[in-house]
Amino acid sequence: MKKIIECVPNFSEGRDLEKIEKIVNPFRGKDNVKLLDYKRDEDHNRVVVTVVGEPDAVKEAVIEAIGVAVEVIDLRNHSGQHPRMGAVDVVPFIPIKNISMTEAVELSKEVAKIVSEKYNLPVFLYEKSASSPDRENLANIRKGEFEGMFEKIKQPQWKPDFGIAEVHPTAGVVAIGARMPLVAFNVNLNTNNIEIANKIAKNVRFIGGGLRYCKAIGVELKDRGIVQVSMNMTDYTKTALYRAFELIKIEAKRYGVSVAGSEIIGLVPMEALIDTAVYYLGIEDFSMEQILETRIME
Amino acid sequence: MKKIIECVPNFSEGRDLEKIEKIVNPFRGKDNVKLLDYKRDEDHNRVVVTVVGEPDAVKEAVIEAIGVAVEVIDLRNHSGQHPRMGAVDVVPFIPIKNISMTEAVELSKEVAKIVSEKYNLPVFLYEKSASSPDRENLANIRKGEFEGMFEKIKQPQWKPDFGIAEVHPTAGVVAIGARMPLVAFNVNLNTNNIEIANKIAKNVRFIGGGLRYCKAIGVELKDRGIVQVSMNMTDYTKTALYRAFELIKIEAKRYGVSVAGSEIIGLVPMEALIDTAVYYLGIEDFSMEQILETRIME
């Protein structure tokens, strides 16, 4: 059975199309590597690439693309709305099929070692690959961004996991790690009161005492005159989508507000929605093996 | 993009393992053909084979297996609980991926023509391939079974679609056609009163004035002391699973009974459950393209 891993590297270039094509090019025309998507954002000055494939093939392509990005991006001249600490800002590996999280972590460390040596790039391991709890969260590592990293990296607790404690002069540093697939799941409320969305977000998210694998903020949808609880579900196998949805419904009642619907942004693993259907229909003893498509894909 | 069709031929042999293996053998070790399952039932004296693959490859394998079944099964000595009219009783083709119903109908007719000529087997086209409305329903065609077919086939309205109007002396006749995937979906009720299950089944099923693509009967689960509405959803793209489920909940209220859960027997297309999740979460503008696995399978 074929192993499939996903990689979603974020590069700090969202404006220069020629450079972007050069960076994306290593993901094209390769056996066992499939470029699913790349989305650039001019305001963020960043491009997010989504690629899937066989682990070794994806690894080689990612290493090649990192090399190109280090060469063509100069962070000394970079500005954008999105925080960034490197030409290659972050490289998450996500186990998709017939591959364990342990294997994904292993793969992330192999890539980390190689790029640190090959391109003189200090690497911080993050998420499931993190070497300590304070490095699990990318925001902690990135705090201070490229400009602040030259000082930060000298502190003993911010010694990189691979490479020497010296920021690459033009490419900065990079975070590499393995994580679960994210699901961007937003629940709309029948109100234009952003305070209500903020309060509900605070209650359902992990840091507010809510669900373990849920990040949430309140967002205004000005066009529609409503607000939403915008969530990142960071492990749908442990914090189910329907659980967040039902909790938001319950919380919304406090404010006399109802749920208007929801949206999923981008890709979602099949199992996250199958699990939701199984819950609402109360299907007993259901197995993913019963999904026709999983039998065909084997 | 690879076309994938499913075929679920039913053969009238459920006891003689040697004969069954001979019949199933053409589905093994072939390129682009995958034997997913075969389930024999001694009481029914019948084996149901599930195979998927590339249309031409599946077609060739099915024709070969039909030939074997005609050779090894003698219906003159056949008895079992399940109604049957042929050594090969029924051969449904089900479009699964990148293939239209029209193409599946076309394929079923090609197979029908070949087996009628090659094996002297009269063929009735049924379901979406039917040449008239009274041939859509398999039960209509099969009425009278093997023993009654010798007379029935002489009636002008029961002239076969392929082959001469003469029943094969040992292999009878066969129904071949294209249909949507069936979903076997059962909803359990918190009561042991079979009358209630029967009444609800009658109300939700098509022939009772209920949902267009729903067949239903009441069934007792004696071990558990409860009853269930046992359904065959014959087109989940038009009659959604959640609709049948919610209707049963509504009907159950009349009898002061609640729904205890449900079950799905055998395989189910991913989309049938994704659609259900999208309904309950109220996801706006969802596209099957957002399912990660569909992007990998392309």
Automatic annotation (TrEMBL), chains A, B:
Xref: InterPro entries: Formiminotransferase_C, Formiminotransferase_C_sf, Formiminotransferase_cat, Formiminotransferase_N, Formiminotransferase_N_sf, FormiminoTrfase_cat_dom_sf, FTCD
Organism superkingdom: Bacteria
Predominant location category: cytoplasm
Alphabetical keyword list: Cytoplasm, Folate-binding, Histidine metabolism, Transferase
GO process terms (BP): L-histidine catabolic process to glutamate and formamide; L-histidine catabolic process to glutamate and formate
Any Gene Ontology CC annotation: cytoplasm
EC number: 2.1.2.5
PANTHER family associated with the record: FORMIMINOTRANSFERASE-CYCLODEAMINASE (PTHR12234)
GO molecular function terms noted in the UniProt entry: folic acid binding; glutamate formimidoyltransferase activity
Domain Formiminotransferase N-terminal subdomain: 3-180
Pathway the protein contributes to: Amino-acid degradation; L-histidine degradation into L-glutamate; L-glutamate from N-formimidoyl-L-glutamate (transferase route): step 1/1
Formiminotransferase C-terminal subdomain domain residues: 181-295
Compartments reported by the entry: Cytoplasm
Protein name (Swiss-Prot/TrEMBL): glutamate formimidoyltransferase
Class of this enzyme: transferase
